Amino acid sequence: MPKPNAAKKNTSVKRSGRLPRRGVADAAQVASGKAARSRKTQARILDAAEELFSHHGIYGVSIRDIADAAGVDTALLHYHFANKDGIYEAVLLRRAGEINSARTRALDEYALACGGKPSIEGVVRAYLHPVFERLLHGGRGFKNFAALIALANNTELWGGGTVKEYFDPAVQRLIDLLRLVLPKAREEDLYWGYQFLSGALTLSYSRNDRIQGLSRGRCRANDYAAIEPRLVEWCVAGLRALGTRH
Amino acid sequence: MPKPNAAKKNTSVKRSGRLPRRGVADAAQVASGKAARSRKTQARILDAAEELFSHHGIYGVSIRDIADAAGVDTALLHYHFANKDGIYEAVLLRRAGEINSARTRALDEYALACGGKPSIEGVVRAYLHPVFERLLHGGRGFKNFAALIALANNTELWGGGTVKEYFDPAVQRLIDLLRLVLPKAREEDLYWGYQFLSGALTLSYSRNDRIQGLSRGRCRANDYAAIEPRLVEWCVAGLRALGTRH
DNA sequence: GTCTATATGGAGATAGAC
DNA sequence: GTCTATCTCCATATAGAC
Lengths: 246, 246
Hints:
2 copies of one chain form a homodimer. Chain A is mainly α.
């Protein structure tokens, strides 16, 4: 069994402070060609890790696999990210903030735009759309990230706490709005609703394509254009039902 | 990366034919004390593997871990199951048939009992109840198995084909009945409905307990008594919505 | 059927040259 | 910042004794 965390003795974890942060790079870094190259290398490493992790899970991938896929030496991975956990964490953090602030923003904008009259459908759509937008137009990297999240979401691992901080606020904002639309709903039913929504959503962008075989080709697991409107209808109906329980 | 399958050269995989099959054991096996002990040992190995796999995934667990947890030597695991893939497969197959034939049976019984007038709720309940029954009263082994299925369900691994044969018939029976209840539904919408149901269901018995933190303790992820009725309502409402799309 | 002993490879990690 | 060389440990797997 992998030791709970081999990075206990790891003092250089804060190296992740040197991760590519678009727009926050200081002058010295921008000026230096070496630093720019470093950021590119790190991005390539993270891209490779993201893809491999999403297919095989953390333990199914070795540091050497990642290094090979990125076309660099394993020592470089240790230099930039200290150890495997550091790579994994960096992969998650790279996109977790972006997608979740997009979600919160979409919910806030809807709350304003609906003129004090929010609907279940409007709220659900606002929460879901940022993900589907990126699944449809965000390129391969985001799809890999999403598949990795799907995997993590069915484990207790789930990013060990750091990631929660990025994902939870958007969920709480979602629940807040649902509470407004369904004032008679019991508190716990709103959370169960989110749980069911979350399960369907993550399976949608996981790497499980069972539905293709089951439906004899009628549905393809990653046909996001087909999924989004149906998932919205599904969740709206479910939330309405849960929100009006006796 | 783990070689796609280290068991290519593995000729003794059919040793799994010697797995505990209640009621099919031949006289020689029943008579022998050694064989009985062997079956017990195998069961202990599978119990340990089931638990560990469900927590850490296949690659997160070593054969030594399993052997230690089961209190036997690693050589025994190779003797009984040839290799790690053999153990994994045996873990899945041990329960896959049982739960899925229970599902099919429940659906068949409902189809008879409803007197030609099935309801969405009746069908969904028949499909879901066998799992929740076992989650609530089946002991720790079944919970571990379920959590492992949840993990596998978000991966492309998914038992490499053998397991599908056990799970798919029950799903097809479910879809058949839903087609009767929702005659105007488009074929693909029924399958999408199953996909969403499946995602919510597997998350319910996964090891992810995020909902506890999110709801500040109001919900606990494995409170199956709370989940079952809500999940039924959720899916019934969703299926009705999907089944009446324009 | 079970355990001891051991072969062989691959894992994560680091020191030090460039 | 990147690569070479190498250390140490643990993984899977098998042969053979009991």
